[in-house]
Amino acid sequence: MSATNSATTVATRQQLPQVNEQGLTAEQVTERIARGQTNAVKSSTSRSLADIVRANVFTLFNGIILAAMIAVLLTGSWKDAVFGVVIIINTGIGIITELRAKHTLDKLSILVASDYLVRRDGKDVDVSHNNIVLGDLMWLRSGEQVPADATIVRTWGLELDESMITGESRTVRKGEGDTIYSGSTAVSGMALVKVTAVGEHSYAATLTAQAKVYKKNVSDLNKGINTILKFMTFLVVPLCILLIFTQMHTVGGWHNAIATGEWRQAVVSSVAGVVGMVPEGLVLLTSLNFALAAIRLARKNTLVQDLDSVETLARVDALNLDKTGTITDGGIIYDDFIALPDCVNKQHAMQALFDLSNEENPNGTGKAVLAGLGEQGFSGSSDLQRVPFSSARKWSAVAFHDLPDEDRNGVWYMGAPEVLLSGLSQQYPDVLRQVNEYANNGMRVLLIAHVPNAPVPADFETNPQLEASAVPVAIVLCSERIRSDAEATLQWFREQGVRCRVISGDNPVTVGAIAGKVKLTGDRKPVAMDARELPSDIDELARVLEGVDVLGRVLPEQKKAIVQALHTQQHVVAMTGDGVNDTLAIKEADLGIAMGNAAPATKAVAEVVLVDSKFSHLPDVVARGRQVMANMERVASLFVTKTVYSALISLGVVLMGIPFPYLPRHISYIGALTIGAPAFFLALAPNTRRYIPGFLRRVVAFSLPCGIATGLSVLLSAWFIPRFMHWNVFASSQELFWLRSMCATVLFLMGVYVLARVSQPLRSWRGWLVLAFLAIGVIGVCIPFVANFFAYGLPGGVALAYLALQMAIATVLFVVSLLVFRRFLPGWMKAGISQYKRLKKN
């Protein structure tokens, strides 16, 4: 269907200027569509499905585990290869989460897919975004986003916000012949433009492609895990080779091993050491917890676009909020019109207020005024000249001349009181005092000023200037609806140690009053400041910000500077926003949070999107991030401890030339009960402690002593038990079976000790968790099926007594080793242990 056929003639709309241009004909439109010269853009990301699958399948972790699993399967001992299931689960989670991100990115577009008014065959018709064609004549009105690059044919005071393109927040007035780029937004006026570039050739398409590039951020947690994996790669290969040679020697050498088939047992024993050194459960649990966090947040209408940003959620200690949409719900109510002494005729001043607000696309305040005055019988005037409201000027104006009522003639201004008053030649301290009194009570205050019977400048619309001779004639009062959940949400952030600042373009006194109503700073009165007084130097700005809670009259470029200043003080900054002028600040922040009703470009660069635009979801966002990171630090200590003792045991076996003290299935059983399953419960436990960088240092500081103590306990058991029991484990498979069962029992006990240390304080459900898995482990080996599957048995008679003695010795050795090794640890590791203990109490 052609664009013209699908378009519908606009029957009812605000009055458009009369123009002679005819625009494209239906035949020309059809021809351009056939040539593909439409504004449709193919939606795709930089990563295809094949790329995603390849990136998640061919990883270092998967390579190590897969090689070990294949080696075990070649021996025919499939029971010892159960650890390989982790590859499937971990890879599946990675692919699913990244596909989810791809799906989200594919739906993003910098341009809002809405209808636009174009002129074809001499008529104005509505056309969808994708059906705009090259050469179209298009009306661009206030509030609309430019859908394609174009050149201005005629303009009626058009002003554009080009912050998405240039980073410059000030609106730019455009004249005939000027080029405008897709992605910018009309903030006032209107224009008739000719489309010069469409689709993928437009400027916005380039920005969209950049925004859609999938960027995998690496968190402190993943960075630590990757460091461990890289270290293990260099350690695993030589240790695995040495283990194979050692285990072949224990079964009579290569010739005998191959002849008798004992090589299979040697390979399985070697794999037991390799698998134990790889923290496969940690990789799995990290992916699972990030995914679960995203799923739980999604159920509360919060979209996490980058799973690794979960760590940033946990570290946030500075939150910059916009007043509208967070503390207030964006709704504005017209309250009162207060005539000042210089007001000659109140009715005429109120009519001027209605005309000032009656723009083609009025803002929220304008709509509230129109609704309030409309109920009182006011309607719009004709034959006036207009300067639309600009966020850069912070005022609008209308001009009348040759009216019968002479006191209505001249120029009327409406805008921010302090801006208008500062531009007048005469001082009005009483008016300013009255404005501040209202603002201190949380009112939104506007000022009406009038230049009576003044000739209207010829360039009034094209080069608007505030006449210094204007006289204040009225104060307009409006108020904002405060969200019912704002006070409770801000209280939660205060309790969690997050410093909230309100950054707004409104009067700082007004914003400060509203912030006080919701107890932004608790019982203390918020400190408010006009952003126009902020220093431009970043370091000086950082110093000033430490004592400021509310900033008003903030220009968009200042938002980015504020984030940069907070970074100089080592703050982790979250930034909320909804407009394109927030994009730079959101990109600069450690965590960008976009409202669901935000501009698509803003949502494209944000890590988190509050789909229903509810500020009350932010505590859930931050709490979920803190829960994942704080708990993952606990469980990472379990996995890294296993890595340390597995490496030490493997090295000890090589040096002592003894059979490996346990099988891969043993480590699967013990790891599941002392690490894997408990870690799952610990990782999902409530925890709101703010994450502190240094994950790897603290984990290593805890795990190294515990791993060494555990490894020595198992190695000494493997060395002394055969000698005490007079067993020849090299010749007797039965005696080797009992030795491995006894060493596995010692390892299980040491694993319970480490679990208990990680789970502290134990006077809680965590203590019961440790006891539960201890009981499950003991009961499990007493069940014949479980014992047979895992090749586990408890000896009787003297061997059982010696096992009890060995476990007691191992316990003492474990405690002594921790105390001894701690004395020789470097300072950074001692500091890490102390910090770990302090944080674990939370």
From TrEMBL:
Its main location: membrane. It is a multi-pass membrane protein. It holds the Pfam family Hydrolase. InterPro entries: ATPase_P-typ_cyto_dom_N, ATPase_P-typ_P_site, ATPase_P-typ_TM_dom_sf, ATPase_P-typ_transduc_dom_A_sf, ATPase_P-type_domA, HAD-like_sf, HAD_sf, P_typ_ATPase. Residues 117-210 form the P-type ATPase A domain. Signal peptide: none annotated. This is Haloacid dehalogenase. It comes from Bifidobacterium canis. The lineage of its organism: Bacteria, Bacillati, Actinomycetota, Actinomycetes, Bifidobacteriales.
